[in-house]
Amino acid sequence: MHFDIITVLPDLLASPLSHSIMQRAKDKGLLTVEVHDLREFGLGKHRNVDDYQFGGGAGMVMRCEPLADMIDKLSKERTYDEIIYLTPDGERYTQGRANQLSLGENLLLICGHYKGIDQRLRDEYVTLEISIGDYVLSGGELAAAVLVDSIGRLLPGVLNDETSALTDSFQDNLLAPPVYTRPAEWRGRAVPPILLSGHTAAIEEWREEQAEQRTRDRRPDLFGEED
Ligand code: ADE
């Protein structure tokens, strides 16, 4: 799978995507990520990418021309499954959306800054607008990193234990059950005996009960929600 990411802060994306699972996915050739500096298409000698908003008001808006030029260039090289704009007023991101996007081949991610991008760019190019939560980041870069990570780890062959993505929180609209490792007792706290029993079916049943209980306690909104 290939990601193109357009940003005015390419450095911000270098680190989160070059560790651990993401780096391994890249090393195995399962995931490629190219970060594109929007200023390459910036206007004038200052390589401007933003301007004041029509109608007045605080905050700059990212202009049409640089972003359009960059999207046009990239679109000649690849056909995108989606052109995604990361924005707090987008659709709220879920595991279901990550699963669906992981089936594609090429995704283009646009990181906004300041007050965001000119509405005409959204109308012209963007096929999906995503928010990673009800809070405002200083830019879309961290949200883009969240998408690459959450989608990248779903690609076949990326995780060592192929089943482990399936048992994550949210895969079946339930939170994950508690997990334990050695020692079996620590500071007077014992691991639930069922986990040491060797009874696979009973352990599975216990995990399901725990997942349901945890979801009921912490996220009752997840029950009955479709993705
Ligand atoms: N850009 C700024 N805030 C954001 C958010 N919550 N989700 C996605 N992109 C953003």
Low-confidence stretches: none
How big a fraction of the residues is strand?
Answer: 15-25%
Which fold does the CATH topology of the largest domain refer to? Alpha/beta knot
Coarse morphology: elongated
Strand order of the largest sheet: 2-1-6-5-7
Going by CATH, the homologous superfamily of the largest domain would be: SPOUT methyltransferase, trefoil knot domain
- By secondary-structure content and strand pairing, the structural class works out as alpha/beta
Q: Helicity, in percent?
A: 25-40%
Biggest sheet statistics: 5 strands, parallel
CATH architecture of the largest domain: 3-Layer(aba) Sandwich
Radius of gyration, in angstroms, nearest whole number: 21 Å
What's the level 1 CATH class of the largest domain? Alpha Beta
> What is the mean predicted local confidence, pLDDT?
94
Order of helices and strands: EHHEEEHEHEHEHEEH
Main location: cytoplasm
Subunit structure: Homodimer.
Keywords: Cytoplasm, Methyltransferase, S-adenosyl-L-methionine, Transferase, tRNA processing
EC number: 2.1.1.228
Quick structural overview:
With 227 residues, the chain is α/β, with parallel strands linked by helices. The chain has two domains: 151 residues, SPOUT methyltransferase, trefoil knot domain (Alpha/beta knot), CATH 3.40.1280; 55 residues, Trp Operon Repressor, Chain A.
Description:
By secondary structure, this protein is an alpha/beta fold. The chain folds into two domains: 2-152, SPOUT methyltransferase, trefoil knot domain (Alpha/beta knot), CATH 3.40.1280.10; 169-223, Trp Operon Repressor, Chain A, CATH 1.10.1270.20. It is built from seven helices and nine strands; from the N terminus they run E-H-H-E-E-E-H-E-H-E-H-E-H-E-E-H. The protein has helices spanning 10-14, 20-27, 64-77, 95-101, 119-124, 141-152, 200-218; strands at 2-7, 32-37, 50-52, 60-62, 82-92, 106-111, 128-131, 185-186, 189-190. The strands form three sheets. Strands 2-1-6-5-7 form a five-stranded parallel sheet. Helix 4 links the parallel strand 5 (82-92) and strand 6 (106-111). It is elongated and about 70 Å long. The model has no long low-confidence stretch (mean pLDDT 94). Bound molecules: adenine (ADE). Residues 86-88, 112, 131-133, 135-137, 140, 143 line the site of adenine.
